[in-house]
Structure formats: structure tokens, C-alpha cells
Structure prediction request, 344 residues.
Amino acid sequence: MTKSKVLVTGGVGYIGSHTTVELIKAGYDVVIVDNLSNSEISMLAGVERITDTRPIFELVDMTTLSDLEAIFKKHPEIESVIHFAAFKAVDESVENPVKYYRNNMISLLNLMRLMVKYKTKNLVFSSSCTVYGTPDELPVTEKSPIKKSVTPYGETKQMAERVIQDTVAANTHINSIALRYFNPIGAHSSGLIGELPLGIPGNLMPYITQTAIGKRSDLKVFGNDYDTPDGSAIRDYIHVVDLAKAHIAALKRLNESQNQSNFEVFNVGTGNGHSVIEVIQSFEKMSGIKLDYTITERRAGDIPKIWGSTKLANKGLNWHVEKTLDEMTESAWKWEQNLKKGFK
Ligand code: NAD
Ligand code: WQD
Prediction:
């Protein structure tokens, strides 16, 4: 039986590389397009060591339609697309909105144009819990209101969902699932692939591991006066491998025509919230390293707490998280130590 071919955009990146591993393990053929704007090609060596398979890699900037079209022509047997490629730094999107609107929207529009033209069947899209803004009720469900976005990054996710919804309504050969990720952290248990933040990390987990390894000395907890048990903000942290597996489950749903409409949305979190202090404590326990940190002012734009209901994904995707917070922090630490050894 020939293997089903999947185009993975942004497949060299953090979530894309972990998903590529799971796709290969599930028997898919993978073609990656990535322009390496926020990733390093060496990540594919890690994928290859884990799976014994080197996915096809095409150096393509998705904002150039003709370059992306060349991939559809070269690989006519592509049946499905998982679209990760985007810029994702929330603060940077506020400082440079045009960069974000241009990259995230033009990439998607080019992709949609080509999926229509080449009659591609399935699309799984990387959306984000950011579309819920500050939620009125917890946990957030897929029916929770979409709030007006406060950042250009968040706006690109809301607009992208709309673009996909409208495109598949008019082109019913395409079936799509948008996965709204909560906060992915951690790394593959092998320690061979993981997150590669460029510059000073904005996100909590890489800041913690870089502090522990000695690259940073000023870990801050942004606020301890929230209405939460320990006063620090709460998020729904999800292990990146659990998140990767949700993509395989989404593709299966589409391939087996189990979807109830040709645009569906699923939350992908754990259903549990953890505070910043809890993440730090878990890291300290799993690494045996005591972290120095200071409590500072709240970070502008942060919401106090969010976690998602995963009931719909549990049922509709037949997918459940397997990993604990301790496994998330432990694997993130293993990856950081391997990076120091020059592993990537
Ligand atoms: P990442 O930056 O590690 O991966 C994105 C990849 O896309 C990178 O390899 C980058 O080089 C590539 N890319 C960007 N623009 C491109 C273009 N024009 N053409 C080709 N390649 C391009 O990010 P990630 O954390 O793996 O995130 C993947 C997706 O998930 C993004 O769409 C992001 O918005 C979304 N998401 C991420 C998080 C998170 O916390 N990491 C949370 C929710 C949603
Ligand atoms: C987590 C918590 C911080 C750093 C972002 C995007 C969101 C989604 C996921 C893409 C917060 C606190 C952080 C630090 C800290 N991405 N913190 N000290 O902001 O929940 O979500 O990534 O779609 O859209 O906004 O993640 O990791 O930055 O922060 O105290 O040095 O850790 O205040 O409470 P966030 P984060």
C-alpha cells in the first residue's frame, strides 16, 4: 500500500518537528516546506535519528506563491497539509504588525489557493487559545466566545480560521480541522529535538531551562497578585508530544471522513491549569536545581488564568493526553542540556 503523503509547512520548527516524528511513526510520508526563518535544519537530523527516516525537505518561503506551487507540482500525491508555518512572537507582532500580517496571512492565502487548485483533500491548521482572549468562564470550550484580539499575532489566528472556513465552504473537496493549542512545552523524550528559541525567550519554559543552564540570571515571575491559589498566573501547559499526536488524530478523523462538517475546531490542552510557581517547582523537582527568581510586576497583556476543556477532542479525535507536568519540565531540561553539548 502506498503511504499517504502529507505536506508539513513549518515542519522544521518546534511543533512541526515533533509532529513529523509522529507522522512518520504513524506511516505517513512527509514533505516539509520551511524557510528556516525561525528554525535550524539540524533539527531534521534529530528527526532522522528518532525515526530512521529523513523526511523530504524543501526550502521554500510560503509567501512566494510560485515557489510553493512548485512543491504541489513536484509532489502531486500530497493528500493532506498540516500548516504550522507562521511567526509566533506575540510582543514582536505588536511592534511589527506588518511583518506578522504579511507572513502569516500571505502564507495561508497562498496555501489555500493551491489546495483549491490542486484539489488537496485535508488541512489541519495550527490555531491558538489566544483566540479566546480573557475568558469569562473556565474551562474554555470551543463554544466560548472569540474575543477581539489585542495583538496582531492573535488577529492572524482569528482571521486564518475565518479564511479557512470560507474557503472550504466554497470548495467542499477540502476538509479542515483547526486545533487551538494551549501552551506547548517540553521536548521529545529522546532529547534529540526540542524548542530552539532565537534570542532571549519570551516564553516561560525556555526561560526556566536557560536560567538553570546558566545562560540567564534574571528569571522573573510576572505577578503574584492574581486571583489564583498562589497568586501567579495559570495556563494549560501541554507536552509537545501529546500535542503532536493530536495532529495525527485529526488527520485520521479527516481521512476516515468522521468529520461532521468541513471546518471543525478542537481545543488541544490538558484540561488542567498550572501556575507559574507550580511550573518552577516541577522543574526544580525534576532537575534537582534550585532556581533563583524574583517576583515582578504583571506582564502587560497577560491574562490571569486560562485552561481548556478537552472533552470535544477526547471524543471526536479519540485523543487523550498522556504526559504530566513533571514529564514536560523533565524533557525540556534534557533538551536544554543536550543543546549545551552541541546536540542540534
Ligand atoms: P516555530 O517558529 O518553531 O515553527 C514555525 C516554523 O515555520 C519555523 O520553522 C519557521 O522557519 C517556519 N516559517 C515561518 N514562516 C514561514 C514562511 N513564510 N515560509 C516557510 N516557513 C516559514 O513555531 P512553533 O512553536 O512550532 O509553532 C507552530 C505553529 O503553531 C505556529 O503557527 C504558531 O503560531 C502555532 N502555535 C504555537 C504555540 C506555541 O506556544 N509554540 C501556541 C499556539 C499556536
Ligand atoms: C506563561 C506564563 C507569564 C515568562 C503565549 C502566547 C499564546 C500562545 C502560547 C501562540 C504567563 C509567565 C513567562 C517569564 C513568567 N502562543 N512568565 N516569566 O503568554 O501564556 O502564551 O504562548 O499562540 O498566544 O501569548 O505563554 O510562556 O509567555 O507565559 O512569569 O519569564 O508564564 O506571565 O503567566 P503565554 P508564556
Observations:
- Residues 97-117 form the longest helix (21 residues).
